Amino acid sequence: MTKTILHIDASARRTGSATRELSDRVVKHLGASRIIRRDLASPLPLLTEDWIAANFTPADQRDAVQRDQLALSDELVQELQQADTVVIGLPIYNFSVPAAFKAWIDLVARAGLTFSYSENGPKGLLEGKRAVLAIASGGTAVGSEIDFATDYAKHVLGFIGIQDVDIVAADQMALDAEGALNKAQKAVLELAA
Question: Which pTM was predicted?
Fold first, then answer.
């Protein structure tokens, strides 16, 4: 059993969402003594000039306003740091990730916290963790040349150090929703717990 799962839902749909159903199944299948929930249907703020200035100010030199600017980002990073496994319900919207998921990425990809720079390039600081992407799409085949979501999500996770990424896909649901969900549900059962 996994100790701590960070369960992120990126679907704007709170009901009738294939990715929410799939990510719930993944979390139940993996089992955890603790589950941290993050629902991105409650929108995260976009980066601002003030946020960027606060982020690039050394932590020991930040004033109260700058610390407040980064408080949510710090909380999101802490959720990632505490998790052994990250399960992300990720729909493909218009060939890519939902804007809410991109906002989450912008808030957690932070130099010195989730990655660092060296002469050999960036290095992820969240190594030793696992991620499962529960992906659904209407017409886009996962892994196809028009799927700009899956590889992007894997790349960003790898950038922050999470290299062990499994994919559970209910893709092309507009063509055969039942078949796509059945295939994905079988893939959930095949995940190593």
Answer: 0.95
